[in-house]
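Q: Fold this one first, please.
A: Sequence and structure below.
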Amino acid sequence: MSVEAKAGWNLDRLDHWSEPVEFEVTQERIMQYAAATNDEHPAHRSGELAPPVFAIVPAFQALAQTAVGIVPPELFMRVVHGEQDFRYHRPILPEQVLTTTAAPVGVHGASTGVVVISKGRTTSSDGELVVEQYMTSFFRGAQLDVHEGEPVTEHKFDEPLRGHEPLASIEHRYDSDQTRRYSEAAGDPMPIHLDDELAKSMGLPGIIVHGLCTMAFCSRAVIQTACPDDPTRLKRLAARFSKIVQPHETVTHALYEARHSGEARRIAFETTTDTGKVAIKDGLAEIANA
């Protein structure tokens, strides 16, 4: 690939880890996130235990900076969330001081854009690993014929599962102010979730729901189905954001028993909208045995 074709792309930043970003967890911040995602689990609503997708909050700044550090500035506003993969090692609790470092670990050109994969590691004040996560950002319309670094993590839906009855089918609706509340709770100010006219100027039909808000809805369905008595048994949560969702749509999560292993139960899931779209594909949850 020519130097000209790579102009503006900072591929030399691959595998360069960021400076640590510190975040203090408070009970109020956990409660705000639970409320913003309509989470009804008592431990989450009371702020005693962070919901699973809250793990993005202390890591968002570091992860976002590593992703945009790779791409030319004119592409920043073309980004949509592609995939997210959380690996939970310890629960996130009030009064913890967490530190996150992140690095871009993969860049892959596609026919309709460019995928940038970032990895984050969040640790506690005693240095113990709390959460590892991979965030995949997709820059729509970007062009780069390159495949460098790590691939997207593997969590593909097992197609034969469609021949089985789902474990559960759970419906969730968004509130009219869902994107504003989620933006504030998550610290994600992207205007495509808040400004209808700007979203339309970016080629979208209007304000769209944060992919991670829908993923938080998925986590509610997983916990309700598989580990309501102990949400900390959820050890991995991964999903691909397939289609955009708007606040007026209703989503339904279909959960399937994938398989058991010696250490964890695996649940596959998909999320569809009442307008016929598959919003979440390749969903995977791993639940530690009780």
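Q: Good. Now the second chain.
A: Here it is, same layout.
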Amino acid sequence: MRRPFSIADASEPSVLPSWMAAAGWYVIGWSGDVAREAVVSVTAFGQDLVLYRGTSGDLHCLDAHCQHLGAHLGHGGRVAEDCVVCPFHGWTWGPDGQNIAVPQGRTSKRRTGVWPVCERNGIIYLWHDVEDRPPQWEMPDLFDDLRDEYPTNGFWDAHTSGCHQYGPLTIQPRMAAENVVDLTHFRHVHGTREIPTLVSYEIEDFSFMTKLRVASRGRRSGAKEREDTVTLKQWGVGCTYTRFSGRDNVHSIFSVTPVDAHRSILRQTIFLERLDGETDEARLARMNAVASVYPEDVRIWQHQRFVEPPSLQTDEAALFRALRSWLRAFEPKPGDYGAA
């Protein structure tokens, strides 16, 4: 017997669950992915987009399809100053979405969609909000945001240390965000000797931070004895800043960016501390050791179901519930959005 199926009108817009459409900044790549005067295709939140870097070096993001006859600007389009030119008929679109030039006629009043983007620490962030509000906060510099009392020798840049991408996978951003309050998983997923201890937490409008004390892994040769801590700071639903301090000093950014109604792309960006006299081989081994931790989470998330309400232990309930309540504030109410 043939399985049942349904047919929808071709003009029906894509439908995103509220938990896959939360407002906020999301990582969509790294700065090195978009060279000067390059045009790059991106898919996020069920939308086809193009990133392009103008001759000035500024980065812009527009809806991918030309408003003339629908050609994809990311497949053959080119940059002219700070605009992008359609490969089909040469229509030129500015970074503000306006039609700048039409070779064989007058410019159109039709505008194309504009998506705010910013670059921090070699990472490209995209602002998403179905209500079309401007960015509600700025993404901070990672090293300023999670600065602590431990001096370091500085850090290798992202492309030297490690940029890793996974997916698309059937993972919801809100599931990954719960890592910032899930102390027990460190032992069962990552094999730590002990479950970390919560030192403190801080909830603000756009960020949720926890600081954990972890079992010491011993002293590195020549390093001062210091307490091992992990600070995790969730910025909106899609991005987690992490600072490992102690025997090893590592900064990282974990992100989960929806591609469509069911799947997300996960990105891990690692910044390793520079160590005096370290060989390239030793640095690579250290980077691989750090990079191997995140896939352990990914293997769980891609088969996980979000349980609501969850059955929580008494000692974890308050923090989980506080985080879930905070995350829901970024989700839009179900409904129709955008131009009619």
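Q: Anything worth noting on the second one?
A: The chain is about 15% helix and 30% strand.
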